[in-house]
Write a structure and sequence with these properties.
The complex is a heterodimer of chains A (449) and B (372). Chain A is mostly helical and 449 residues long. Chain A contains 15 helices and no strands. Chain A is globular. Chain B has a domain of 108 residues: Cytochrome c-like domain (Cytochrome Bc1 Complex, Chain D, domain 2). The chains are: A mainly alpha (449), B alpha+beta (372).
């Protein structure tokens, strides 16, 4: 039985408080009128003029000091705390969803090796409930025009008589309209959470069942299989709705897979961190290096898979250079170049080099460092997917971004640890528990260290 | 002192394992063990090094990666620059994204092909390589430990004998007898080998004949994580890994016999059961042979009930088959009695198949006709 230590509880509350305070700070410091924006930009100009190198930039900004531009900038600045909140909320929701996907895979594959990790997966994916609620509230706030992360929600864009009329968005309005958008969100979250609750319920039923009675396990298999079909569609459409529609003019056919691969890698990285944390605290005695090694193999493999999808899209856009498509990368290269390439290095080069050697995947230090790098890297990946469409060039890694990330991390820690402490840490009664306890990958020789 | 070749032959993998451990405990290195199937844990017991194919693969990959860089640079930038899709070939770096698929494929190609080649060479499995198995019995059911020893071998022989070797042979190694692979290659295969070696694999051969045991390959086979066939299995039916056959399963060649083992069943067999096999000399002769194995010790060679055990008074009351003694028997009732037994006689259904029992019945009737 895991005991949720007071220390960790305090830490999670502190992190959540940091998140709320930094979000409040973000909203307070956001300019509310065009005058504020103009003042701020003059301030920026003053800053720039001290630096002769950026004089040109300052001149450029001065040239654009007309009313329309200032209004546009105001919208983007107002979006900033909302976007920071949204990216973090979505990122941690994706971690929980990726974990649920991995857990369902274990049931469908009737996997034996992973049984000792099932309860960790269950606890981690339980974050879907609070995380899903928060994401839904943010989407709802968008629908009620509290923020403009989703540009297409503006009704004037599809009004043929309006000067803002946009025929491309009008053409997509059959799918991209607020009621259907929110309905879909309810369906996705409802389906995922439903599957999660059923799998957790059957897991407990199986624990209490007599030896040899595997009815609950078989039910979990069926739920997982149905969930997987549902997830196959909704993970794609969900990523269109929640991530791709931030750039409503642009579309990509492999986007769902791209988002999924990132989500899965982050989930595995987080799983490694949680498992290693529990092991260092003396829990999960039956988890051995071979289990960690397998998580490492998945992490390595899906990092490569993520890179494959990333590059598949990038090289075709780069080569074909079609304006409609390439605008996506133009925006990212113009304003996000450093973050963009850092993210590629963190998500591809780093795990490639560290995890390529088979032995490294079973050592905790390598796995923890890679896990942390991958989590930050994939947060940045999501950041770069959302931000160019919502705040444009006015992005920072500032108080709001880091604060909300920490806040959701706190919520995630609280939810996971709280859930772990409520049930036994090992899914007892699982028909393949024994196999998992004896799981051994042949070339791991070292003992616990 | 010349070098000697010592072979210890074992007929059981468990004995082999304990033998390997005993020999290693004495600080003697085993040069090779030949087994008909992978023996779990043998590599560890022998102290084999783990395979280094992964490091080799990494190096091959690096070679392929740089080869692709050179290839794309030479073809697309240096030798024949082209303007494809508005991207003129000025420098390699500017066109690099379009070369990444080639770099990727070349890395994989080099890794895969050179790894397979290395694997075959390291394990001496290249085309035309001579078989290096010293004793063909190890491909059937025997296990062989091989040693190359300088000097006295009596100590080693004693250890091998003690640990259960069924056969220990010692041979002097004459220079020609060294199993040097290169001499045995036919010319055609040799040229193939030389060409393959040209790919950069000249470091795999060794002057010493098999001094180094080959590395472990296919380690998965040595380290099965699955339950063993007849082991305990908490999830299996009756906690066994092996499953009982489906109800109503009939084993191959088995013919069910429906008449029950009761008095009514006996009467039924006596009156109505007829032999389904032909009454001929061949069947009668086979029946006689079986009779002389299974029945003779009680019933006697003539069927007179005076078998060896009866004469020695181990069993009493074995009747003669004669009509005067047993007036009322038929081939059906004889079959029935062999199948189920009667009085002191036990069932022979487990020793004799259905048709064998019918053949014995035929012979018993023949004996009966000869008895007064």
């Amino acid at each position: 039985m895991y005991i949720f230590s007071q220390k960790l509880k305090t830490l999670s509350f502190v992190l959540m408080a940091v998140g709320i305070l930094s979000l409040a700070f973000g909203f307070i410091t956001t300019p509310s009128t065009v005058e504020d924006v103009n003042n701020q930009m003059e301030h920026v100009d003053a800053d720039h003029s001290e630096d002769s190198d950026s004089h040109e930039t300052a001149v450029k900004i001065n040239d654009h000091h007309d009313e329309a531009h200032a209004e546009h900038v105001l919208t983007q600045l107002k979006n900033r705390p909302w976007s920071a909140l949204y990216v973090s909320a979505l990122f941690f929701l994706f971690i929980a969803l990726g974990t649920l996907f991995f857990m369902a895979i274990q049931y469908i594959g009737q996997a034996g090796w992973s049984v000792v990790l099932l309860r960790v997966m269950e606890a981690m994916s339980t974050y879907l409930i609070p995380g899903g609620l928060i994401v839904f509230l943010i989407l709802l706030a968008g629908g009620l025009h509290f923020h403009h992360i989703f540009h297409w929600m503006d009704a004037s864009l599809i009004d043929p008589n309006s000067p803002n009329f946009d025929p491309i968005i009008e053409g997509k309005s059959g799918y991209l309209n607020v009621p259907f958008f929110l309905l879909r969100a309810v369906v996705y979250l409802g389906g995922w959470i439903g599957a999660l609750l059923l799998i957790k319920k059957y897991s407990i039923e199986q624990e209490n069942a007599e030896v040899g009675n595997n009815i609950a396990y078989n039910k979990a298999f069926k739920v997982s299989a149905i969930f997987m079909v549902f997830f196959g569609v909704t993970s794609s459409t969900g990523s269109w709705d929640w991530v791709m529609s931030v750039d409503p003019h642009w579309f990509s056919t492999l986007f769902g897979w791209y988002v999924f691969s990132g989500m899965f890698v982050s989930a595995l990285a987080m799983m490694v961190l949680v498992v290693v944390y529990l092991k260092t605290k003396g829990y999960l005695q039956t988890v051995n290096h071979s289990h960690i090694h397998d998580l490492g193999k998945f992490m390595f493999g899906f990092s490569i898979f993520w890179t494959y999808l990333w590059f598949s899209q990038f090289v075709l856009y780069w080569y074909a250079n079609i304006p409609e498509e390439v605008t996506y990368y133009i925006a990212r290269f113009a304003d996000y170049k450093v973050a963009f390439w850092t993210m590629v290095v963190m998500n591809f080069v780093f795990p490639l080099i560290v995890l390529m050697d088979s032995g490294k995947k079973s050592y905790y230090p390598y796995m923890v460092v890679t896990g942390v790098v991958l989590i930050i890297g994939h947060y940045m990946d999501l950041f770069i997917m959302i931000m160019p469409g919502s705040v444009g060039s006015h992005w920072y890694f500032g108080v709001v971004e880091i604060g909300t990330f920490l806040g959701f991390l706190g919520l995630f820690i609280f939810c996971t640890a709280n859930n772990l402490s409520k049930r036994s840490l090992i899914a007892k009664g699982h028909p393949m528990l024994k196999e998992s306890e004896h799981y051994h990958y042949y070339n791991i020789e070292h003992e616990d260290h | 002192m010349s070098k000697k070749l010592v072979h210890g032959l074992f007929d059981d993998d468990d004995i082999l394992m304990s033998g390997v451990k005993a020999v290693r405990q004495k600080g003697i290195d085993i040069d090779e063990v030949y087994t008909p199937f992978p023996v779990h844990g043998l590599d560890k017991a022998m102290g084999l090094k783990p395979t280094r194919i992964a490091s080799a693969a990494f190096i091959f990959g690096i070679i392929g990666f740089f080869f692709a860089i050179w290839l794309t640079w030479f073809m697309m930038i240096e030798d024949w620059p082209q303007n494809i899709g508005g991207k003129p070939s000025f420098t390699w770096l500017e066109n690099m994204p379009s070369f990444i698929p080639i770099m990727f494929e070349m890395t994989i190609f080099f890794t895969a092909h050179l790894m397979v080649t290395t694997y075959f060479f390291k394990n001496k499995l290249y085309p035309g390589s001579a078989g290096i198995n010293p004793d063909p019995r190890t491909t059937d059911d025997k296990f062989l430990m091989e040693f190359f020893v300088d000097g006295d071998t009596s100590n080693l022989e004693a250890i091998l004998k003690d640990s259960g070797a069924i056969e220990v042979t010692v041979k002097d190694i004459v220079e020609e007898e060294k199993r040097n692979l290169w001499f045995k290659l036919p010319p055609k295969s040799a040229s193939v080998v030389v060409i393959l070696l040209g790919l950069g694999l000249s470091s795999c051969s060794s002057d010493e004949p098999m001094r180094e045991p080959v590395s472990v390959y296919m380690p998965d086979m040595y380290h099965s994580v699955a339950y063993e066939p007849y082991s305990e299995d908490p999830n299996g039916i009756n906690s066994m890994e092996a499953r009982t056959p489906v109800d109503g399963t009939i084993k191959r060649g088995y013919v069910p016999y429906d008449i029950p083992n009761t008095n009514e069943g006996y009467q039924e067999a006596l009156m109505n059961l007829k032999s389904p096999i032909a009454s001929n000399d061949e069947n009668a002769k086979y029946g006689e042979e079986l009779y002389n194995i299974y029945c003779i010790s009680c019933h006697g060679i003539n069927g007179d009930g005076q078998g060896k055990l009866v004469q020695n008074e181990k069993f009493l009351g074995v009747p003669s088959y004669a009509a005067s003694r047993l007036p009322n028997i038929s081939e059906g009732s004889i079959f029935h009695v062999i199948t189920y037994g009667k009085n002191m006689m036990g069932s022979h259904a487990s020793q004799l198949t259905w048709d064998e029992r019918w053949k014995i019945s035929q012979h018993v009737l023949k004996l009966r006709s000869q008895l007064k």
